[in-house]
């Protein structure tokens, strides 16, 4: 087709002058002509007649007359053709796909482009208009044709008009619509002539024509058929194209045509979506079936989640909107459910047609999760099924996603989204937005939330294991982000829902307030449950090994008591407590004392610019700050004993989590002193190395990498550290979601061992107060999101008294619960020979007798101020009332734990309990951890109370 026409040479066994042109030979003996070449262009047969009558003999003079050359009949030019034949050669313009030259077996296209052919050259530009090279070329092109331009492999997709090319329409928006069959909008030209299919033009040839006259009959054109690529017309040659090397479950078209789903809805295990109730008149409805390639890997709760998300974004549920909030706890597979939904919407539509519900999907996530999302797409769909653009650096051209067709999904971080939101709006538009860790969008002033809203996308999905972290105002913002206007304005929501619900949860609320708040809470939960799906980690119980969580209340050492009280007694403390900024600095300082007093040495360097902080640190004796953490910190003592037991007695690995890099520093120094290898991930770790560290830790043994130091803020989300079976949360955060996400890192798919998680708190200090506030927030989230009944945890007076160190015996949190289990793990277990009044007659707490390395350098200090003394007395007086007021049902979250008094494990209680007594063995069974049992038996152990919850 691409070679110029050459007339065939007629060969005859006889001489030309002996041939009678008026007679058709009867046999091959007279004239032998070679057959027409295979698939050559059909030619008009024309006969040259002489002006004189035909001669009767072969020696007629007319035979020797000069013969006129053969004439070529021109095909008519198509009226709508976009290509023209110019004096300089072929001219045409095409939308193409391009890629760099590669020898890989499975090739993928790098992007879309525009090819212009004129003046003997083919010029390639990307979708942004940048020149990518040119090559000499003057040949015809069809959809599906391939060529090489500027070192790039190019495949023609469709033709465009010269007017559109000059108007820059291909570079501004996707103006040329690509059909699924590969049809072109305009027919390309072959050497200046339209490529009309051979079936549309048939020259009429008469067996006998008069000489020296060419008869031309009108050309009859059949119905215009647009040019198609080879693969689109493969059925005409009796074959069906099949994607090589990929097993496909896509159904073949019906023989007679008609609507048909992409995948078989009646196949075993098929996941079929709900059909819409309403659809356009004249349209056909087909079943939407999740690709079996994905659905075969989905668990029951994940199949339910995909159905839920599909119905929400398609507007099939009973609420006004197309948004959804998937609030599954960590480890339930929110990422896989989202990928299954996106792939289904891209490829299928309940309204029968060639296009899916969406064309472009945007995934917004923290920068630490970008690599994880990319790996998940590659894991479940591979590179050959879907194009995913990762916007993780400055070299990425966003026009490849917004204007091109190679990429259907883009993954971008929250921070980068703010700077490119205008560019994302210039293309064809974003059809679906997925906000991972969506609790970041918890305020109306959040710039990332405003950037997403500016995209004008109705279909929005939030993924968050903790949809409400602090209060109902944050919950409102997340709901309003998914489905704008569903809860009205915030002022109305605050008046009708937030204020009554919050007021009813206060311990001193009246019966009318409780009744009103309960009714509003149930109404809010019922309203939002239509588009919020919440499942807890309990659904994984049949897939994962068991998990046990321990809350360890560690009595402070003498050094911690003295440093704590020196801070509270300082004259600067009173002036700082009234300043908001200084108050936050004081809280941070007390949290560091709970971890280890030596952390204040580094804080001293950081406070050089703050006169009040520097003055406050000056009152602390340097001898206390120079003490080793293992000596001066109760939590470090417990951790040291746990690490030594695991490294010597087991082959397990451990994850150590902290909110402060300074704490990670001393943890790393302690591991190094014990010659235990470890890896570390914090805010300074490059994003491209984080997943590499995680993979290395999971694949290596404890002898090569015993521990993994993790910053809760930098790596607390999206990381699967299944190589470890023990996790220590060394400090607590005000936001319970931060701690919950960090603790979920090891209890994920792929975990083979039983999981043990330890939360360490310094009893009576800032750690325990923050933990109490966490429980309060968790109870509010449970009541609204999960629909659980849960009263307020502690009164404002109990939570307001943050700045004091309680050294009274027992566990303050357990006392506030009003639980009468006596610290034996169950109400039915009673200590032999003990009485109910024994707890009130305990002696004041003192350090262990063998704590000789921690001598009192200074006299013990009483609580700092008179106000603090009065506050302590007030709380102590109200303990009995607290028990009567709340009881067990007042704190559902903590009543799921078993409360164990660690003193039963000490040697001095042997004559009371005895290590072999049935009750004591039952307590050890409730604890369920040999490592922790061994630690609690040590006389130097600082743990005084344990909350244990078996999952």
TrEMBL record:
<dbReference type="GO" id="GO:0007131">
    <property type="term" value="P:reciprocal meiotic recombination"/>
</dbReference>
<dbReference type="InterPro" id="IPR001650">
    <property type="entry name" value="Helicase_C-like"/>
</dbReference>
<dbReference type="Pfam" id="PF00176">
    <property type="entry name" value="SNF2-rel_dom"/>
</dbReference>
<protein>
    <submittedName>
        <fullName>p-loop containing nucleoside triphosphate hydrolase</fullName>
    </submittedName>
</protein>
<feature type="compositionally biased region" description="Acidic residues">
    <location>
        <begin position="834"/>
        <end position="853"/>
    </location>
</feature>
<dbReference type="InterPro" id="IPR027417">
    <property type="entry name" value="P-loop_NTPase"/>
</dbReference>
<feature type="compositionally biased region" description="Basic and acidic residues">
    <location>
        <begin position="14"/>
        <end position="23"/>
    </location>
</feature>
<feature type="region of interest" description="Disordered">
    <location>
        <begin position="828"/>
        <end position="853"/>
    </location>
</feature>
<dbReference type="GO" id="GO:0005524">
    <property type="term" value="F:ATP binding"/>
</dbReference>
<dbReference type="InterPro" id="IPR014001">
    <property type="entry name" value="Helicase_ATP-bd"/>
</dbReference>
<feature type="domain" description="Helicase ATP-binding">
    <location>
        <begin position="315"/>
        <end position="485"/>
    </location>
</feature>
<keyword id="KW-0067">ATP-binding</keyword>
<dbReference type="Pfam" id="PF00271">
    <property type="entry name" value="Helicase_C"/>
</dbReference>
<feature type="region of interest" description="Disordered">
    <location>
        <begin position="250"/>
        <end position="270"/>
    </location>
</feature>
<keyword id="KW-0378">Hydrolase</keyword>
<dbReference type="InterPro" id="IPR038718">
    <property type="entry name" value="SNF2-like_sf"/>
</dbReference>
<keyword id="KW-0547">Nucleotide-binding</keyword>
<feature type="compositionally biased region" description="Polar residues">
    <location>
        <begin position="175"/>
        <end position="199"/>
    </location>
</feature>
<dbReference type="GO" id="GO:0000724">
    <property type="term" value="P:double-strand break repair via homologous recombination"/>
</dbReference>
<dbReference type="InterPro" id="IPR050496">
    <property type="entry name" value="SNF2_RAD54_helicase_repair"/>
</dbReference>
<dbReference type="GO" id="GO:0015616">
    <property type="term" value="F:DNA translocase activity"/>
</dbReference>
<feature type="region of interest" description="Disordered">
    <location>
        <begin position="175"/>
        <end position="209"/>
    </location>
</feature>
<dbReference type="InterPro" id="IPR000330">
    <property type="entry name" value="SNF2_N"/>
</dbReference>
<dbReference type="GO" id="GO:0005634">
    <property type="term" value="C:nucleus"/>
</dbReference>
<feature type="domain" description="Helicase C-terminal">
    <location>
        <begin position="638"/>
        <end position="792"/>
    </location>
</feature>
<dbReference type="GO" id="GO:0016787">
    <property type="term" value="F:hydrolase activity"/>
</dbReference>
<feature type="region of interest" description="Disordered">
    <location>
        <begin position="1"/>
        <end position="23"/>
    </location>
</feature>
<dbReference type="InterPro" id="IPR049730">
    <property type="entry name" value="SNF2/RAD54-like_C"/>
</dbReference>
């Amino acid at each position: 087709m691409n070679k110029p026409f050459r007339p065939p040479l007629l060969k005859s066994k006889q001489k030309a002058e002996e041939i009678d042109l008026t007679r058709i030979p009867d046999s091959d003996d007279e004239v032998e002509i070679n057959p027409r070449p295979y698939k050559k262009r059909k030619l008009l047969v024309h006969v040259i007649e002489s002006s004189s009558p035909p001669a009767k003999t072969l020696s007629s003079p007319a035979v020797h007359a000069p013969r006129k050359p053969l004439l070529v009949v021109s095909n008519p030019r198509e009226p709508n053709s976009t290509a023209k034949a110019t004096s300089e050669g072929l001219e045409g313009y095409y939308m193409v796909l391009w890629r760099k030259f590669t020898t890989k077996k499975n090739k993928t296209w790098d992007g879309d482009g525009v090819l212009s052919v004129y003046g003997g050259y083919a010029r390639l530009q990307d979708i942004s208009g940048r020149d990518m090279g040119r090559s000499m070329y003057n040949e015809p092109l069809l959809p599906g044709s391939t060529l090489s331009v500027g070192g790039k492999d190019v495949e023609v997709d469709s033709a465009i008009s010269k007017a559109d090319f000059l108007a820059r329409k291909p570079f501004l928006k996707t103006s040329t619509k690509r059909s699924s069959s590969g049809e072109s909008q305009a027919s390309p030209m072959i050497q200046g002539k339209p490529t009309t299919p051979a079936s549309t033009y048939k020259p009429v040839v008469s067996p006998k024509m008069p000489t020296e006259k060419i008869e031309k009959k009108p050309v009859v054109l059949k119905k215009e058929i647009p040019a198609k690529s080879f693969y689109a017309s493969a059925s005409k040659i009796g074959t069906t194209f099949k994607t090589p090397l990929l097993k496909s479950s896509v159904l073949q078209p019906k023989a007679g045509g008609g609507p048909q789903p992409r995948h078989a809805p009646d196949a075993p295990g098929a996941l079929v979506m709900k059909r819409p109730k309403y659809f356009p008149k004249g349209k056909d409805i087909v079943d939407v079936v999740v690709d079996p390639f994905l659905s075969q890997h989905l668990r029951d709760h994940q199949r339910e989640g995909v159905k839920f998300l599909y119905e929400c974004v398609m507007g099939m549920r009973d609420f006004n909107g197309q948004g959804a909030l998937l609030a599954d706890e960590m480890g339930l597979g929110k990422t896989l459910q989202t990928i299954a939904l996106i792939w289904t919407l891209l490829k299928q539509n309940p309204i029968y047609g060639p296009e899916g519900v969406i064309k472009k999907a945007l995934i917004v996530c923290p920068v630490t999760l970008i690599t994880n999302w990319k790996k998940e797409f590659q894991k479940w769909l591979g590179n050959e099924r879907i194009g995913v653009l990762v916007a993780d650096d400055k070299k990425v051209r966003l026009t490849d996603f917004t204007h091109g067709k190679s990429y259907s999904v883009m993954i971008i971080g929250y921070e980068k989204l703010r700077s490119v939101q205008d560019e994302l709006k210039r293309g064809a538009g974003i059809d679906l937005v997925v906000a991972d860790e969506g609790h970041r969008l918890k305020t109306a002033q959040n710039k990332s939330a405003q950037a997403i809203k500016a995209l004008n996308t109705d279909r929005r999905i939030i993924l968050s294991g903790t949809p409400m972290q602090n209060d109902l105002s944050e919950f409102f913002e997340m709901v309003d982000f998914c489905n704008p206007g569903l809860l009205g304005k915030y002022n109305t929501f605050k008046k009708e829902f937030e204020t009554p619900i919050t007021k009813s949860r206060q311990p001193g609320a009246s019966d009318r307030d409780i009744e009103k708040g309960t009714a509003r809470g149930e109404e809010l939960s019922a309203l939002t449950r239509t588009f919020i799906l919440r499942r807890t980690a309990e659904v994984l119980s049949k897939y994962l090994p068991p998990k046990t969580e321990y809350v360890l209340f560690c009595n402070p050492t003498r050094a911690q008591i003295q440093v704590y009280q020196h801070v509270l007694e300082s004259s600067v403390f009173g002036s700082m407590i009234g300043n908001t900024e200084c108050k936050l600095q004081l809280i941070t300082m007390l949290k560091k004392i709970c971890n280890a007093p030596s952390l204040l040495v580094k804080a001293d360097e950081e406070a050089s610019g703050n006169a009040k902080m520097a003055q406050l640190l000056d009152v602390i004796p340097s001898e206390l700050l120079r003490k080793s953490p293992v000596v001066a910190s109760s939590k470090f003592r417990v951790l040291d004993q746990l690490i030594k037991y695991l490294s010597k007695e087991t082959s397990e690995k451990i994850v150590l989590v902290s909110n402060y890099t300074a704490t990670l520093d001393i943890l790393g120094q302690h591991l190094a002193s014990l010659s235990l290898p470890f890896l570390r991930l914090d805010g300074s770790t490059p994003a491209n190395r984080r997943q590499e560290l995680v993979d290395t830790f999971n694949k290596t043994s404890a002898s090569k990498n015993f521990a993994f130091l993790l910053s809760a803020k930098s790596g607390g989300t999206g990381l699967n550290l299944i190589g470890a079976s023990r996790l220590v949360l060394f400090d607590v955060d005000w936001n319970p979601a931060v701690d919950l996400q960090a603790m979920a890192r090891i209890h994920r798919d792929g975990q083979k061992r039983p999981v043990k998680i330890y939360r360490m708190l310094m009893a009576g200090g800032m750690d325990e107060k923050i933990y109490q506030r966490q429980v309060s927030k968790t109870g509010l989230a449970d009541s609204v999101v999960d629909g659980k009944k849960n009263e307020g945890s502690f009164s404002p007076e109990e939570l307001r008294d943050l700045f004091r160190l309680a050294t009274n015996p027992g566990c303050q949190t357990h006392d506030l619960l009003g639980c009468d289990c006596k610290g034996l793990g169950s109400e039915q277990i009673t200590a032999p020979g003990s009485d109910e009044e024994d707890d009130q007659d305990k002696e004041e707490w003192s350090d262990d007798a063998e704590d000789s390395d921690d001598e009192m350098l200074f006299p013990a200090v009483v609580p700092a101020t008179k106000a603090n003394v009065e506050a302590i007395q007030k709380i102590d007086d109200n303990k009995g009332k607290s028990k009567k007021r709340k009881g067990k049902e007042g704190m559902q979250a903590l009543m799921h734990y078993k409360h164990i008094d660690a003193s039963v494990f000490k040697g001095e209680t042997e004559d009371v309990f005895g290590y072999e007594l049935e009750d004591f063995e039952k307590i050890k069974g409730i604890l369920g951890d040999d490592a922790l049992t061994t630690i609690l038996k040590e006389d130097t152990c600082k743990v005084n109370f344990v909350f244990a919850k078996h999952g």
